[in-house]
Amino acid sequence: MKKAEIHTSKGILKINFFENDAPNTVKNFVDLAQKGFYDGLTFHRVIPDFVIQGGCPEGSGAGGPGHTIDCELDGDNQYHDRGVLSMAHAGRNTGGSQFFVCHSRTNTAHLDRNHTVFGKVYEGLDVIDQIEQGEVMDKVVIVDEE
């Protein structure tokens, strides 16, 4: 089973993937991370009590990896709770590299089954609240665990 670690100056977000619910989305994220795509990118969008968003190579929210992936919305874990990792997109089936992590369930229920949930932070939930706009992802590490 693969996991991810997003390293920042505020701490590390440790993530469990939902490979059964979103296998292609997980594979896309893992492939990009293993190529070093996310290393040095910023959280370009931070909205308190909503989300922290990163993964744009331009830092503007308009960039991507040069390809798109389809949404995977039918799994059991498609609910945007605190710590959930989900794909950002500009419309159905336009996701690529941008992702967000939810602060809480309060303002995210409308995202359920509209954005692909593909993981959840299991350690470092406090780090989510400390991330500010422009915070750098020093590196994203994929960890293989049995």
Question: Can you offer a commentary on this structure?
Answer:
The protein has helices spanning 23-34, 125-130, and strands at residues 2-8, 11-17, 43-47, 51-54, 84-87, 99-102, 117-123, 137-144. Helices cover 12% and strands 32% of the residues. The protein has a single domain, classed as Beta Barrel (Cyclophilin), CATH 2.40.100.10. It starts with a strand and ends with a strand. It has 146 residues and is mainly beta. The model has no long low-confidence stretch (mean pLDDT 96). The longest helix has 12 residues, at 23-34.
In short:
The protein has helices at residues 23-34, 125-130, and strands at 2-8, 11-17, 43-47, 51-54, 84-87, 99-102, 117-123, 137-144. It is mainly beta. Strands 3-4-6-5-7-2-1-8 form an 8-stranded antiparallel sheet.
Task: List the topology elements.
Layout lengths: L1 E7 L2 E7 L5 H12 L8 E5 L3 E4 L29 E4 L11 E4 L14 E7 L1 H6 L6 E8 L2
Reported CATH architecture: Beta Barrel
> What is the CATH fold-level name?
Cyclophilin
Poorly predicted segments: none
Taking strands numbered 1, 2, ... along the chain, how are they ordered across the largest sheet? 3-4-6-5-7-2-1-8
Alpha-carbon distance between the two ends: 6 Å
Radius of gyration: 13 Å
The number of strands is 8
The CATH class = Mainly Beta
